[in-house]
Amino acid sequence: MKNLFKYDQNHRFNEILFENRNKNYGAYVLRNQEGEILQKSLLIGVALIAAMALTPLLINSFSTKTVVKAPVPSGHVLKPVDQTPEKAPEIVKPIVPPKVNTYDSRVATPTRNANEPKPLTKQEIADAVPGVTTSLDNPPVSVVSPPQIEIPAVNTPPVVPPKTVDNNPVTTVDIEAKFNGGIDAFRNKVVGNFDTGNFEGSGDLMRTVVTFIVEKDGTISNIKANGENAQFNKEAEKTIRSIKGKWTPAKLNGENVRSYFKFPISMQFE
User: Fold this and answer.
1) Which are the contacts of 215, defined by CB distance < 8 A and separation ≥ 6?
2) CB 50 within 8 A of CB 42
3) What secondary structure letter does DSSP report for 204?
4) How far is it between the farthest Cα atoms of the chain?
5) CA 51 → CA 39, 54, 199, 259, distances in Å?
6) Cβ(268)–Cβ(196) under 8 Å?
7) What is the mean pLDDT of each run of 10 residues along the chain (270 residues)?
8) Cβ–Cβ < 8 Å for 108, 119
9) Are 18 and 28 in contact (CB under 8 A)?
10) In angstroms, rounded to a whole number, what is the distance separating the alpha carbons of residues 150 and 148?
11) Which of 14, 75, 131, 269 would bridge 199 by S-S if both were Cys, CB 3.0 to 4.6 A apart?
């Protein structure tokens, strides 16, 4: 009923639109036959998609496949055996000491019916070395062992890596930095050293906040004023920088650290 109602509504709209016009014109026919044309287009598209999807299946069903048979394994299975080649035995050559002519350096004691050795020639005595035997094949050999020296063990202390020091200023501390003499003394020095010559008679109320870093040794650095009047900010920075006196640095975990400190300044000039 919904589609018929929609078709009837579109038909009425087309009749109103093409009233007093040539209805044989193509646009009128196309608008009335819009639903039929869409249905035919949908059916043709579905048929084309189904034909494209079924074509490979039909080709595979008619094609013959060649079956390759796996070779039949034999009853014997041969496995390679790792054979490590045997090393030929090393031939150690005996150390043959050099032949040295020696002579008996001992003084012979005369005895009765003693077999006196054959006297040596001068050349043999010159080429010989002192010893207790006169063998030409086995010269005397003396082995001297060097004395063993014990080196006492030295206990080397373990190497302790140096402790890393963080010099970045912190915003959260256990004990805040303090001016030696109190914050009121610091405020009085700021008021006393501030040059108001450039601002007197203006009747303005000027404000700024000076931020600086209190170092570990009690000095201050990185002084910067943040206010609306640039000249007032410049004079405030100059005044803070000129104040003499040290600060007690802030502490974190029992150690001195660099910390930020904010000091507001407001003055009324009449």
Assistant:
1) 221, 249, 258
2) no
3) -
4) 178
5) 18, 5, 94, 80
6) no
7) 54 68 64 78 91 86 67 62 65 68 59 59 66 52 63 72 76 89 90 82 82 91 90 90 89 91 85
8) no
9) yes
10) 6
11) 269
With helix as H, strand as E and coil as C, how does 237-267 read? HHHHHHCCCCEECEEECCEEECEEEEEEEEE
* Rounded distance between C-alpha atoms, residue 250 and residue 218, angstroms: 9
Q: Which two tokens stand for residue 243?
A: 């104040």
The CA distances from residue 197 to 70, 232, 233, in Å, are 109, 11, 14
Interatomic CA distance for residues 239 and 190, integer angstroms: 6
The upper half-sphere exposure of residue 134, i.e. CA atoms within 13 Å in the direction of its Cβ, equals 10
Structure tokens at 76: 């014997």
Asked if 220 contacts 244 with a C-beta cutoff of 8 angstroms, the reply is no
Q: Give the total residue count for the chain.
A: 270
pTM above 0.90, yes or no: no
pLDDT for 121: 72
- What dihedral do alpha carbons 25, 29, 31, 33 form, nearest 10°? -170
